[in-house]
Amino acid sequence: MEGITATWPYVASLFVGMLVCLEIGRHLGVRALARDPVGAMSGVGTVEGATCGLYALLVAFGGWCLLTAWRPDLWPFVVLAGLPVLNFSPWSGWFGLDEFDLLVLGAIAGGYVRLPTRPPGTRPGYFAPWPPVVAIATALFVGASGISLWRGVTDAGGFEFDAFQSYLDPMNSLRVFKPLLLVLLLVPLIGAELTTSPERAMRRVGAGMWTGLAVVTISVLWERIAYPGLIDFSKRYRAVGLFWEMHVGGAAIDTYLAMAVPFVAWALWSARTRLRWSIAAALALLTAYACLTTFSRGVYIAVLLPLLVLGAVARGWTPSLYWRRRAGRVLIAILLVEVFAVIWTGSFLIERMAKSDRDLRGRIAHWTNGLRLLHHPADLALGIGLGRLPSHFTRFVDGYEFSGSVRRGAATNGRNSVTLAGPASRGELGGLYWLTQRVALRQGVHYRVEFDARVNAETAFFVRVCELHLLYERRCQSRVVVVKPGQSPWQHQALDLDAPGLETGPWFAPRMAVFEMSVLGAAMQAEISNLQLKDGVTENLLRNGDFANGLAHWFPSAQSYFVPWHIDNLYLEILVERGPLALIGFLVVAAWTLRQTASRPVRDGDLSPFLAASLLGVLLIGALSSVMDAPRSAFLLFFLLAFATMLVRLRSEDPPG
Question: Are residues 70 and 52 in the same domain?
Fold first, then answer.
């Protein structure tokens, strides 16, 4: 058994390392082609640049692997701190994979290289076994998820790798499965860190969580200053931070905040100097602002209740320093002022609260429709397949349809294109689904758009460039153009966008600009090619505007209408896609871990009660929101579950006292 334990990490690290290197090479090639498609096709100018870029990324990745192998205690901090940042899908166009996956795979590769060289007492094989009920429940969840992955890929027509697929394609099944797979690969490394030094491992996890949360709160602060305004709580604007998974709605930032906020309490509790406590208190104020400006009722419940429970438990073990008690009271007073300022000056929050009853009825109806997707005995036993909820909602539930779609067209006569479509039948959803790309924001200029279109019927296009972060535009230059079938299949369109010039915003909170194109009306679709955006200076601000590389650099995004993409309930999400055995396994592991972490005697530096509050928060928000369809949120949930479970088992083996 020990020989197997010593051998398989090498094999796994080699496989994972090769996978990552190949993906990095593919990634660099796509971007190099997108930068200079003419040079790429002619073989001039891009090979050298792509090779240099590939070498640079390989060196960076290799350096990260070596750092992890040299200092394996650092990876929990780096991975958790990087989680909210490392996803650049709006720029790359990636869907099934993202930069965070590369970070985790690098940690796995480097960690597995080091694993066999650790002292025998710190190897995973010597770690305390899980209780049988937890082991069986974990096996049920993992096994059911694996079967659901196979069913999802099969339901989508068979696996085909493409980093730019959509929610209807087989890559969506892998996208939903990968957080579980990555955490399973990390489990031996978590065990190694805990057996080496549980106190250090807890510090790394806690510091990684509150550092990542600091990044999220700063991004929300920037977002609010740049777009609606820092203290304008009346606009219908909900902060999304850096969670680009919310391009079709969802609750990625809500879930993250529910899991991360208890670690601010940990930072306050564990601080032993006035400076560290002051930094943690500043983070608490920023975190409260971020939570409030999501305008999510689920966030309010999932953050407040665990903190109240944590506060009640903490009364018996809070360090009795006089300055801490006084400073804590002042902090609570400021937090209350912050909350009341948003409530009493923000009409949007009042509007949201007034709609609670109606929204709950809508959610119940939505949940009922989700349960109706379990048509056959196999669905009832095994689920419909990972990542298949959006597809099945639009196929089997009356009135559910996407507000649009984008797919790559077939290359004909040397011309590449994409097909842009509106809703299938509901005209009111027209113009709510966009083909987007991040572009340079030019102060005061008027943009000009040119493109070739092929239509079979009269089709209206809505084109605009907006001051936009993700979902809520501030100011736009726009134009509607109607294209009719003509004598030539392809018709060239050139139009100047209307409206005043855009503004770059303050230097400390610069705005971003996004080019967007949509089809208005129902049952309309068109092929688009040779898309260009000009500002009078730059020849073309768009990358891959000829779609020679498919949807690289293009990022489809929805607005206002998000119903078909989510079931808005963690437990139904697991039940419908993975089956009842997976739900039972998840609930057993979550309940056991929550009970054990909440009931452990608190020690100095112990993370257990804060892990309990974090898990309670995500279980609460899961009653109103989906979690598994946002890979980074799902990864964090699985990671914290694994870490907490293994920490409890390790502490149960410690001698008393």
Answer: yes
Cα dihedral across residues 104, 245, 143, 198: positive or negative = positive
pLDDT tens sequence across 358-382: 888 999 999 999 999 998 999 999 9
208 and 173, same structural domain?
Answer: yes
Q: How many CA atoms lie within 13 Å of 633's alpha carbon, on the beta-carbon side?
A: 27
Residues 20 and 150 in one domain: no
Q: 431 and 571: one domain?
A: no
For residues 390 and 377, membership in a common domain is answered with yes
User: Which of 56, 90, 117 represents a domain boundary (last residue)?
Assistant: 117
Q: What is the pLDDT of residues 113-147, one digit of tens each?
A: 887 776 665 555 445 567 889 999 999 999 999 99
Closest CA to 502 of 441, 566, 587: 441
This prediction's pTM: 0.91
pLDDT digit string, tens, across residues 141-198 = 999 999 999 999 999 988 887 778 888 989 999 999 999 999 999 998 998 899 888 8
Measured over the CA atoms of residue 388, residue 389, residue 390 and residue 395, the dihedral's sign is positive
Write the CA distances from 430 to 29, 358, 519, 638, integer angstroms: 35, 24, 7, 38
The pLDDT of residue 115 is 78
Scan for tokens 């842009």, then name that residue.
420
Q: Write out the residue range of the structural domain in which residue 60 sits.
A: 1-117
Residue 52 has what pLDDT?
56
Q: Which residue among 536, 560, 584 closes a domain?
A: 560
Give the contacts of 578 (CB within 8 A, at least 6 positions apart): 141, 144, 145, 148, 382, 383, 386
